[in-house]
Amino acid sequence: TGWRFEKKNFSWQANLFQRNITDFIDWNRLSIDVPYQSTNEGNLKTFGFSTHINFQKTINAHQIQLKVSYTYLDPIWSNYQTNVISKYSLESLRHQIIGQVNYQYQKWQINLSNRYQKRLSKSDYILTDLRINYLQNKFTYFLDAQNIGNATYVEAGAVPMPGRWLSVGIKFKS
Predict the structure, then answer these.
(1) Residue 47: how many CB atoms within 10 A of its CB?
(2) H helix intervals, the chain
(3) What pLDDT is recorded for position 69?
(4) Which of the four pLDDT bands, split at 50, 70 and 90, describes residue 42?
(5) How many other CB atoms are there within 10 angstroms of residue 29's CB atom?
(6) Angle in degrees, CA 89, 94, 96, rounded to 5
(7) How distant, in Å, are the alpha carbons of 11, 32, 141, 150 from that of 126?
(8) What is the pLDDT of residue 58?
(9) Which phi and psi angles does 157 have, rounded to 5°?
(10) Which of 95, 100, 145 is nearest to 120 (CA)?
(11) Could you give the strand order of the β-sheet that contains 37-40, starting from the edge strand earlier in sequence?
């Protein structure tokens, strides 16, 4: 179920949803002394809510866009083993807030993004990313700065994600 409102430079959208998964696949083990094994682990019903706000404005040749979104997830497991060590079951997101500012002037684009995430079993964290593009004919030259605040965090599968990192590149579009 969803709602949407649009007016000139502004839009708002909200959605309520439910997702059902039967025979949820997880990696489990009985103790830290044995390897993980893939198993079908019961059913997962996730209730959720998301909302998005978008504002954009062009002043002379300057284009600016502001975006904010929020997602809430409430997963409920049934027929799930509780006496095992799970690799994925408690890593679902509970809260996610994303704020973005996109700016464009002539051939330059700057995108700044902040993302707050709270997982069920982990501490929360904030990620800040910056991308600068220069457009020239069929080429885009870019500089990416990811995780500018050097946050320590873990995504799905208990894999630690990289700290701050930079990349520079060229894209060609034919």
Answers:
(1) 13
(2) none
(3) 98
(4) confident
(5) 15
(6) 130
(7) 25, 30, 27, 9
(8) 96
(9) 85, 10
(10) 95
(11) 37-40, 25-29, 85-86
For residue range 91-130, list pLDDT tens digits in order.
778 999 999 999 999 999 999 999 999 988 778 999 999 9
- Contact in structure between 89 and 107 (CB atoms under 8 Å): no
Start-to-end C-alpha separation, the chain = 40
Provide the phi-psi class of 93: left if phi over 0, else alpha when psi is between -120 and 50, else beta: beta
Residue owning tokens 């649009």: 6
**How many residues are given for the chain?**
174
Distance, in Å, from the CA atom of 23 to the CA atom of 15, rounded to the nearest integer, reads 26
Q: Compute the distance between CA of residue 46 and CA of residue 24 in angstroms, rounded to an integer.
A: 12
Residue 97 in tokens: 């807030």
- Picking from 130, 127, 137, 134, the residue whose alpha carbon sits closest to that of residue 169 is 134
